[in-house]
Protein 1
Amino acid sequence: MNRAGRLTVLALVSSAAASGPARGQQIDYQSFQSLFGEPVSKWVTGIPQRVGEVAANITIITADEIRQSGSRSIPQIVSRVPGLDIFQDSLTSFDVGVRGYQTAFQPRLLVLIDGRQVFIDDYSRTIWDNLPVNIDDIRQIEVVKGAASALSGPNAAGGVINIVTYSPLYDDNNVASASVGNLHQVIGDATATVRGKWGGAKISAGGLSASAFNTPREAGDVDPIAPRHSYLAARSVLQITPDVQATADANYSASRAMTADPTDFGTTGNQYTATYSVGFGVNWQTPIGLITNSTYYNHTVVQLFETTSGGNGTSGGLPYTFHTDLLVSRLQDQFKIGADHTARITLEYRFKTFSNDGVQLVDQDPAISQSGIAIGGAWIWRISDRWSWTNAARLDHTQLHQTGTIFPGAFFNPAAYDQTVNAFSANSDLIFNATEKDTFRAGYGRGIQLPSLLNLGWDITQNFGTNGPADYEANPKLKPTIVEDYSVDYARKLEFLNSHLKLSVYYELNRDITVAAIGTNAFVLVDGVPTPVVLTENVGNSAGWGGEIQLKGSAPSGFRWDASYSYARVADQGIVKSTVDYQGSAPQHHVRVIVGYTRDSWEFDVAAHAVSGTNMLRSLDGGSTQSTFPVRGYTSVSGRIGYRITPNMTAALSGTNLSQSVTRQSPFPAIRRLLLASLTAKF
């Protein structure tokens, strides 16, 4: 599409977003993708945009690419994005690092499903094996690298992953799949959709059952439990009038798996998770803009076992049970000012609660609540047919309170929990369309990583390892971690190669990084015995820099390719190196080569990764002393062969870690080769 045509389309889209019917809020992705000839996103501006015109470093993984990956795991699917690194510590447990900042229980990457947060505020993390989504019901996965808190809210400090499912208003997605594989894998998923003049509704359900990896592990690691997962999710959109839509969502998900534990114990734990969520929303087109409200409530219960067991996949020892609640209500108005300006004003309320149950040496029942109000705004200025400038700002005001009972001798008294924090985030991106083939983007982001609820309100007094009793206390006076990043991107369309070339460079500074537990010189009396205090603390800063280069394309003959290289360098300051060690955890080099071929009813795809070594911290004996654990660089190969039996039925064979039977990716237990046979039917 030439520039004149593109500007005409954008003008029509912008006009529809500002003055058209409310159904513009639930956009028809397929129509816009066909119109633009490439995937579209409304993540930043609220209106459909080509990937190359979005004011962020964004990659969209399409439904075709999800299918061609052969994976039923979202972390494995997003590993094809340059700048993301994953490590796997059990069959279903993963963590995703962004541009070198890799850790278990990743706190810097905000994860959403259709704009609703599935990131959990207990440890500040995403439990990937517990997501209530059918892989076959995902239209696209939007991956944004760089601070984006002003656009998405707290904890989008390093990036955002938004999983966009098919809309029941526009898409007749009726699909079912069944898979079996080695390690007794049995996986089943299904989605059913109904549509009418009234709107649309869909329901998805599925589950997984398998045996645990049986690979070498360290002395402090648990015997891994056999993974399980089940979910039920429903979503509906009602077209009440041409100008008013109502939406409703409800889902339940439960899982269990072995997972890496990033606290100072640094071992592994068996984890049981259950999440319930309900939500509703209204989209109303008015003379003063498109007014939307989205409200949802998440309740999550996590039970984590820290210690080793006698075998048979069960875990003994002292469990912790975390209860986390999140209520979010967002009111937004998006409107046009003249022909060249689009603005958005947002008011948001958040309420969180956290409590932990566990066997303790003293009688206590700690629990906290945190409420917050945020006001934000965004302004998109189309300066000319070549230049556009997007700015966003957000101010979060949060209040913390102790709502449970801590023991009288605790290091922090109840009054210390009455804390107020104000945090400011911002984004500014300038895009220059130099020619029909060349696009430049320069961006700045200031992101906010709020302390996790566990780090603000955890208090537990127990014996751990061989070091005797200790009083592990959270710190209600923690500061947010501030992330500032500067980035430049260049994209060029290479018509002679049927490809797109993308280059990115970045610099990132992180201030007031938090450590979950660090020893102090303080003591408290526990049953009359002086007991050392271990606190959560802000310990220092860290800087990262690097870049990515990617060549991606396809040919009329059926071949497709995606080759990339990413470089990430991290320099920790002060005691960040010895307590967190982002510097050692970052794989500096990551090469990806993805090749596919489609011919008639057949699809063939192979993906190869070469990742340089790391030196992450972890405990090797189940105690509280951490050591550097070197992990050599490794290669990994995955593949898929698919055959379309009928226009609506496909059989496939896929596998991961095909180049070796066992691979050590991290200091935690090695992973196994996995094979899967699948049958997918659409109705």
Protein 2
Amino acid sequence: MLIVNTFDSLVGARLLEFFDIRAPWHRRLWATGLLLTLREILEASEMVAAKVLFQNSVKALAETAIVLAGTDPGVGSSPYKKKLHDLLRTDLQFESMEYLELLQLANDIEDRYLQSWSGALAAHSAAPGTLKAERTARAIGSHLLDLGFSSEFLFGWWRWHIHKNPTRQTLAEIVLAAHNLTHKPRRAFEILVVFREAPPNKDGDPDGWMTAQQVIQWLKAANFPTEGLRQIGGMWLNVMARDPWGAVQAVAEIVDRFASRVQLGTRGQLLPLPDVYIKNAPKTYPLRQRRRRVEVDALHREDQLYSSGKSVSRVDSAIELLSPLDASSPSTAVAGGWAAVEAILTAPGDADRLSAGYRMASLVTSSFPRAELTSLSYKLEDLGGPLAASIAACATNRDRAAHVLQHIKAGSPVLLTDPADVAAVDRLKEVLADPKKKLHDINTHLSTVFRGLYRNRNIVLHGGKTDAVGLRSSLRNAAPLVGAGMDRIAHAWFVEGLEPVQIAARAAVRLATAGAPDGPEIVDLLM
């Protein structure tokens, strides 16, 4: 169990939010970690040599890495930081000496990254210094996810160490345990996928195939129920992964590829049952591709779920393009996701195709304060009392958010005890202290996410590389944010009749004037 102090409790709470697949978009992890960013720089230089990307992609990634490394104790001592900074300032070319040095440096950093963080946290606990809870959680959380651990596994692992471990530990000790975890090699998993329909190969059953009778026999021997199970056989698939959930996700992608081949190569279809079985595991796991949480709630709020209309608008088309981003294979998801962004937010005169991504970043940035305040309003209402009663009397979510905002601005105590909610209040106070600067920081961060989505789309579509090192991380970061931006676009279209670029223009003006004496309140950045 975590030995509680304010800093450590905030870091622990944010890590659990980052790994919680149910967390709303405004509390999720949007970041790619330093190590993966370095790996992406190396890959991007290779893609430049292959004429898939331009050198400005390498430069943009290097600038992001410089910012990340500046305050990151995981890099190591001052000589390591200086060497990394010097390499990132070069015009990196594929397989050049600078490329090889950066590769070596990335390997060194990976080997001891969390160990260095553990030492920094121990020093901070003894004599609090410059570490920030939010930055600490982002660095540790993104590093673990980027290494290939699943969110489900990490959520359970951290929850046990923070809340259930009978041995009391400091955050530094838990991070050291996480460091040891990262040094364990990937494991081999044997996973049985059972099919309702599966056309045979031309020359018979595929490798690892089991007949229907063999499937039943194996399930009974492993103590799984078989009554009512309709199937024609199953297939054993072998994958290497960090944890069972990651293994099942890898198998889901394999089955998705198989299904595409079957659809194109036969007149049949590949229909797996919804659950798979891991050899020597006591439970089943859902096979379906995990949703990336692209949520456009305006479709339900504005009663547009089954609206056919007389014509198909740009918003309708973008929503259709967006659907693969939620749960399809990574290559399909990145193609559909960027296509939706570009189709709906491109304007006449755009010289840079990334402009659409930057506009989406502005929309999501403008949505962030109200999303945080609305979420807090429901937490405060649950506490009861006079504030809860006045919040409950508000007619709209905008009014609820504004009511909580005024409460915070007045300096009144916010009696929330959950560290995750306390962290949210702290973030809002930072925005209120300097709206222009803080919103600019958020917008810059989100622009990096959308730039990564575009880069990975190009690597997939123009380079034919479906295993890009940052592809899954990019989708994890961008998908909920695209959903949040599309939700604002859909609301503006269905309620006000505004074109997407019009609401994007409104967001740009509001962000530019936030914090001015006559500027907008942070709950009204899209009004």
Protein 3
Amino acid sequence: MKHSHVWTTRIAAMLVVIAVASAAHAQVYTKLYDLGTNPGDPLNPAWMGLFAQGRDGNLYSTTQGGGQKAFGAIFRLTPSGTMSVLYSFQNGTDGVFPNSGLTLGTDGSLYGTTPAGGNPGYGTIFKITTSGVFTVLHSFNGNTEGVQANAPPIQGPDGNFYGTTGNGGGQVTGTVYKMTPSGTLTVIYTFGGPLRYPNALVLGTDGNFYGTAGGGSANPYGAIFRITPAGKLTLLHSFNNDDGRAPLGAIIQASDGNFYGTTRGGGPDGLGVIYKITAGGTFTVIHEFHETDGFGYSPFSGLVQATDGKLYGTTIGPAHGLLYQVTTGGTYSVVHILNGADGQSPQVTPFPHTSGTFYGDTAAGGTGNIGCITCGVLYSLDMGLGPFVSIVNWMGKVGQTIEILGQGLTGTTKVSFNGTSASFKVVSDTYLTATLPVGAKTGFVKVTTPGGVRTSNRKFLVLPTILSFDPTSGPVGTSVTITGTGFIQAQGVGFGNTIPALFTIDSDSQITAVVPQGAKTGPVGVKTPGGTGISKDTFTVTP
């Protein structure tokens, strides 16, 4: 390290600043558990390691080390800090060294991947219930399906799961796959020379998936891409090293509609950046990491947006690493500097629990040493944010059952979707279901509990559905009655193309539109803030 005496002085100054800021803003970092304290503990949790909150209100993730046989583990962490091993990998058909972390499915199970193991040994996709029932859903074949699945699959609005493998055999250098809940897998895109080594996907509000790739002959420093559920890929940005290199962490879509992420390297000092990119591909670096300012560098983790609108992440440098926050405009500040005893080398994105507290882990540090030198810690970070509710399936159609996670839900008296009340059922103190009502609008969900009104941490998107239209053919100027659901916020209607038609919203289930000049034979579409509904049938434009 250059200029060690200057560096020590700056770190000391930073510690004083952070201590004062913590007291002023109720920033409380707490080490909850030293991994490696007991035999069979999860060990050294590292990238990607995403956390998920279960219906029971507990947190779940994976480690590629530890467990009963040292092949990795799935663990549970209660909000109060109690850790328990839910499953230990056996290095058999179940897989080995899971570093993906987990996601929650609408069936209440948690889904993840292993980069190796299984049969024939190229990794697996699995699910596990919160009671510990483990099921292998698919074993990768190592060739056309790829290998090295490093991220958990995510569930799309169609109920299927989508994910990536980071490499493959032959000319395959990664894949994007679709998998049914029962485990039937289809590769929808295969990466090759120009673009290689994809990482985690995120579902965008437009119904497409967004992700990053680590390299390729035409993109040696990595890239950002969009892919449709049908497998059409669009390259949005190629990193050039000056604006970043090696985008490892999962990207997110923030409340402003833009996507945000980090790169492990690149930038002026080669130590990484934080970037913003629009869905159309307009790219901006909003923060550059430097070695000598004490504000951290080399982020493995991605970002998460909290209810305060700020983005949170971690860096592995300097020294033992730190936690930070950054606004969408690029205003950056350090939240907590790790000292080794309370953790070291945080590589996993902090997770915002519905209590308002963040939870996470570090790859090293702490005092546990059974099975490793320093085995990492589990921690919480209280930024003084209040409780909220989280929507499991945050886009859906009228009549669909919507799952909501929270705290203190027993005694709930009202659930509303952007002001429209819904029928609901409280299943437990941490989980309820609601039926998306007629007239529901895209917007925030509010749940009235005995402890107060809890607002969702993101907007719910009401997807429009076209069920029928009448007549089914006619010339320009024909008045067409379109029936369906989710029409109350309709912004546009089209016939066979994007040429807009004049229309009237009759109700949430009916629109009257006039076939416009230039319309072509094809499906009918209705656009709303929640998305675009496309008819299965074709309207025929006659002379």
